[in-house]
Amino acid sequence: ETPVKPVTAQGASDELFNAAGVPLFAGIALWAGALATFLVLSPLWRRTHDAARGIGAITLRSALPAAGIGAAQGGIAGVLLPIMLGYDLAQGLGFFALALVAGISFALVNQGLSALLGGFGRFISFALLVVGFAIGVISTAPPLLQSIGDASPLGALFSGFQAIAGGAGGSGSAIWALAVWAGCGLVLTAFAVARARKRATE
């Protein structure tokens, strides 16, 4: 009799845990960590309403804890994952730099959304998390979701991770894109600070 071969399932479930899938989950984890941070912490400095400082100074003071937490999260991912994935030194350094910038950027964007828009801002953040996960694991995701995901901070990080994994250029542009997103997060926080200061004087 011909021996019966056991049925094995291959495809997406296996690919989620290979060298391409692990960075995907790293990006999702960094964004989720940034979102969770501002479910626990206030996005604005506690003395925002009465401190004798300008809007810029208060914005930076509010952003420092967020940037520190984001840097810690990105740094941990940037150290551990290259070792797990067996990257060489150049890939490892590139991954670390990208993860570090992403951790800070994600924290500042989530801070800005939470500070200016409150619960709706956190909903937007959660929606981007879902979109990022969808485009990462579903190759046939609708074009609209693909466009939203690619244009988001998560999309910038994914493209950078893919460039590093493939040994191609492109991680530098991803870092620049994430830096721009970090600046956008600071702008949102500055608007929130200005609004809080205005309300305090009324």
Walkthrough of the structure:
This protein has 202 residues and is mainly alpha-helical. The protein contains eight helices and no strands. Helices cover 77% and strands 0% of the residues. The longest helix is centred in the middle third of the chain and has 31 residues, at 55-85. The protein has helices at residues 12-15, 21-40, 55-85, 89-117, 119-137, 143-151, 153-165, 171-201. Helix 2 (21-40) packs antiparallel against helix 5 and helix 5 crosses helix 6.
Question: Can you lay out the helices and strands and say which pair or pack?
Answer:
Elements: H1 12-15, H2 21-40, H3 55-85, H4 89-117, H5 119-137, H6 143-151, H7 153-165, H8 171-201
Helix pairs in contact: 2-3, 2-4, 2-5, 2-7, 3-4, 3-8, 4-5, 4-7, 4-8, 5-6, 6-7, 7-8
Low-confidence stretches: 2-17
Order of helices and strands: HHHHHHHH
Radius of gyration: 20 Å
| SSE-based structural type | mainly alpha
Assembly category: single chain
Give the overall pLDDT as a whole number.
86
Could you give the count of β-strands?
0
The dominant shape is globular
Indicate the percent of residues in helices.
over 70%
Q: Distance N terminus to C terminus? A: 88 Å
Strand content: under 5%
Question: Could you describe the largest sheet, including whether it forms a barrel?
Answer: none
Tally of individual helices: 8
